[in-house]
Amino acid sequence: MVSAPYRSQRSFGASALDWCWIATGRCQLYLHGKQMLWDYAAGHLILDEAGGASSTLDNEALVFMNLSPRSVIAASNYRLYKAWREWLELHRYADDLSMHPSNYGKANRRRAKRA
Fold first, then answer.
1. How far, rounded to the nearest angstrom, does the alpha carbon of residue 3 sit from its chain's CA centroid?
2. pLDDT higher at 19 or 106
């Protein structure tokens, strides 16, 4: 098992407050699997103004014209954000490497050869 790049996970009861704590540097990293627009809009703006970085887990920009739930990864600065993204990319598919995007074409080619 690979150890995660964090020691503790906390939630303060309101997503906007979590974002503000990241923006002020009280916390360094934030990961959430499903936030609605009203959960992240104000906090994202505050973090952005404070020099932090954020995206979805799929490395997409947070879209404000969409009301569907979004995953969120955020950090108090770009260096931490980049390290967190790299760790996630390396370990996100650890349980099922066939699901890693770099293996999509390989798996299909192997199936075609067997047929």
1. 17
2. 19
